[in-house]
Amino acid sequence: MDINQPNSSSRFSGKQSKPYKGKIKLKNLKDQVIVITGASSGIGLVTARMAAAKGAKVVAAARNEEALQQLVEELKEQGHEAVWVKADVGREEDVQRIAETAISKFGTFDTWVNNAGVSIFGKAMEVSIDDMKRMFDTNFWSQVYGSRIAVNHFKERGVPGALINVGSVFGDRGVVVQSTYSAAKFAVHGWTENLRMELEKEKAPVSVTLIHPGRIDTPYNEHARSYLEKQPAHVGMIYPPEAVAEAILFTAEHPKRDMYVGFQAKWGAIVGGLAPRLTDKAMELTMFRTQQSERPSRSVEDNALYEAGYGMHERGTHVGWIRSGSWYVKAAKHPVLTAAAIAGVGSLLWNAAAKSKD
């Protein structure tokens, strides 16, 4: 059996709590129970391992039962506490079961990470409506289900918790060839922003964070449904999944509105807003060729859109410069020190320029 049987009291009524007074303070990771969807590979797998290493109790959810069992056994052998839940997050009842399992096993949960996702590579007019709907179930509706369940839990218990939704650079700026994925992430971004404002207005004990990853080295391309002749892949500068996990786990302890993973993510959001037509042309020029490799695409059936993809792989099969981390994430974690460092460098340059004029 994949979960401990929850009792009926683990259902959430959505009862309103009293307004939370004061600044939201989150628990240290070592004292937390963290729920992670899409935990069988890529960002979710790395986040689960890193969270456990920091002392958190992990609730790992995904469709790949074998991979989940392997992950939890690995964590337990290392002395960590963890439980797995086989769940299709596109189904609300499955997402509810994740929460019930966390409460049945650990009594509560403190951070909920909506990470599960899958992509489709194909032109907007070629992707079938059925494929589009299925992706929205996984990429958008799963985050709505998880958000509502997590928020109700945090409000009912009256103790602050963190809701972390994983978006994308393509949720800030549209991209060719991944129109459905981009549209779903735009929806996630809009949902997260609106939910955050409403919760802030009512002073709910919930920290809501949106993660904006750039192009990340995960099996995302191998799990995608492809309409292309060539295999989908990131070509160019790519960031490691550890950088996204670092951002997620930082915001599990520190309330933060947004975290951009990689300068390309922040740059895409800024430039796409300030110069949309110029960005259109740049996308048209570069993004058709930098989203596919030179090898033939995997078969039409070989993808994770409708069934679980292979698990326990952190990295993908991309082509390009894979960074060791994200300096943008590290700077966001220490804004005061970063500002001081920038000011110091600016002062040195100013003084150097002044001396050169003497």
From TrEMBL:
The keyword Glycoprotein does not apply. It holds the Pfam family adh_short. Residues 32-219 form the Ketoreductase domain. InterPro entries: KR_dom (IPR057326), NAD(P)-bd_dom_sf (IPR036291), Sc_DH/Rdtase_CS (IPR020904), SDR_fam (IPR002347). Keywords: Oxidoreductase. NCBIfam families: PRK07109.1. Belongs to the short-chain dehydrogenases/reductases (SDR) family. This is SDR family oxidoreductase.
